[in-house]
Amino acid sequence: MSITLSKAAIFEAQAEKATSWRNRLLALPALVIIGIFGVLPLLIICVYSFLQAAPYGGVQWKFSTDAYLNFLFQRDIFDDTLQFTPDFLIIYLRSFLFAVVTTVICLLLGFPTAYFMATRPPAQRNWWVLLITIPFWSNLLVRTLAIMFIIRDEGLINNALMGLGLIEKPITMLYTNFAIQLGLLYSFLPFMILPLYSSLEKLDFRLVEAANDLYATRRQVLWRVIIPLSLPGIIAGCLLVFIPALGAYVTPLILGGGIHLMIGDLIAQQFGSGRNWPLGCAQALILMAAVLVALYFYVRNTSGKIQHG
């Protein structure tokens, strides 16, 4: 009897080992792709950030920390002293502000929209999802140019207001912070609605009915039942909006006219007209580090709330 059990244990161990190796082989292609297109470029950027900039682009293979030093300081051309220059820091703070405002407004607009979609009859929900995803059928550049044609001085809004006699001269909206914010909202609102809809669709609305039967007000039902149960969708939507909005490039370039820079435009300038690749790599790494730190505290706090709930 004991011999039979030992053989069964050996066969089971061998089967588990074979399964483990098979799973590793199946994961190998994905790991190779991640390593080549994810880890390797990140390592190259990290290495380049500690090199000297070549005069006409590229790098010189000499170790230097000037890229990180130039993020906040510049050397005086006469006495070589360091002077604090907050220009890059201001652009980073402006980008964070744009991303936060975009995330908050998308959440305020996306939550009631997703709730409306989730409470429709099942036969209608697919049509509402289709309407939300229609903007993805066209290129972001085309959609951004369409917004530019709408809000420019000779655009649809100004022509309509002047035609109605509400204004005498066009309202300047293009190439302003308002235009950038509008473009970010339009571009990333679906990224908020879809995760919220996916979470609210799975919500057991019998809990909402039970809360109503217990004489809970609509506000209490919202804050104590619906929002806690849909928190995973809120977290996913906020992450999907905040991170791309922080590194947006096309929207501020077109709607901001290159006047109101964001981080994406700033980094692109270093690799283009600035010809300072190490500084561009350092700015990208600083951005990534700031995002990782912010996400760490955000996810840790929100995951604690989910477990507590």
TrEMBL record:
GO terms for cellular component: plasma membrane. The keyword Electron transport does not apply. Its main location: membrane. The keyword Nucleotide-binding does not apply. PROSITE patterns: ABC_TM1. Pfam families: BPD_transp_1. It is found in: Cell membrane. Keywords: Cell membrane, Membrane, Transmembrane, Transmembrane helix, Transport. It is a multi-pass membrane protein. InterPro entries: MetI-like, MetI-like_sf. Signal peptide: none annotated. The chain crosses the membrane at residues 25-51, 89-115, 127-151, 178-200, 221-243, 249-268, 280-299. GO terms for biological process: transmembrane transport. Residues 92-298 form the ABC transmembrane type-1 domain. Belongs to the binding-protein-dependent transport system permease family. CysTW subfamily. This is Binding-protein-dependent transport systems inner membrane component.
